[in-house]
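Exercise 7. Predict the joint structure of the components listed below.
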Amino acid sequence: MSESAGNSTSEYIHHHLTNLQDGHGFWTFNLDTIITSALLGLMVVGLFAWVARKATSGVPGKLQAAVEMIFEMVQSQVRDTFHGESGAVGPLALTIFLWVFVLNAVDLLPVDLVPMIMGALGVHHWKPVPTTDPNHTFAMSLTVFFLIFFYNIKAKKFGGFMHEVLTVPFGPKMAPFNLLFRIIEDVAKPVSLALRLFGNMYAGEMVFILIALLPFYLQWILGAPWAIFHILIITLQAFIFMILTIIYLSMAHESH
Amino acid sequence: MNINATIIGQAITFAILIWFTMKFVWPPLVAALEERARKIADGLAAAERGKQDLVQAERRSEEALNEAKAKAAEIIALSEKRRSEIIEEARLEAKAEADRVIAQSKAEVEQEVMRAKESLRDRVADLAVAGAEKILRREINAQAHSELLASIRTEL
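Solution:
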């Protein structure tokens, strides 16, 4: 595969890690990330909506049972962690889990498959896994970040929130330090969320690309175990993103 | 790692997906699962009720059985009593009959005795008369003394 994709190893790798972009400076759009994530997101959420609309309270079919398993997993996590009126937290957690999971799962496709198909269609760069794009992971984590503020203010009102920011954990006399700690704490949340997912998926994708550089008759020796291991990684990362979101929102909802 | 406007696009997509899930995925699933939980609870309650009904029915049938047994025992006791009564009655009747038969035969025997006595008396009277006749043949005229002979006969 490596010979067909580029003249040298570094070119091959570089080719695989280049987004299809349009625009200049900040106003550049990674079209592959946007299109893939929107398509897959709508597909999986649409599938769930379709099943949910037909959902019967009687004996469920296999598809409905599978959907219910995922749904109940998410719901029980929300119920265990988030106390009080959960409102949008459940749907948010489910969306995160499903979306991250399907986008990560694209990683299991052969690394050259999607770029080859897109190449045949005349598109020369196409990064198939949106979660290896920090723009995507930061978009999700920053949305969660704003939701954290929203829930903080919703639960404690603005005054209560500011009071908490300035007095916890050292008391009112140390207000500047409290504020500093709070800023570090709150900034760390979206950064760690985004970088954890990005780092895991980027590294995984990179390993797949490196395995693809081996002679084709040796690739399965590393490729198969890594892909099988990756099934765990993609699920785990989706789960971690979801559960941390629930935890952050429940922390925002409760006063310290 | 180059951050660009993609981040805005992705955030918008994310928001749309969240909204979509909130509106079209979460509520129907919650409704379906709650409905099923309710159905299962109802089913379990019904099963429990059925079990209780069964226990009750068993108790009732046992009661009915006991009642029937008691009644049967009563009937048997009654019939036993009736049987002994009938036997007693029959015995009394038989005894009465026997007494009657005995009394009757006794009377008959007495009658026979009387009759025998009567005939004996006649015979004795005849014998006496015959004896007297033999003794008094010469001087007693049967016609003349018939009155006397009759009185003797009645005396005997």
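Discussion. Chain A is about 75% helix and 5% strand.
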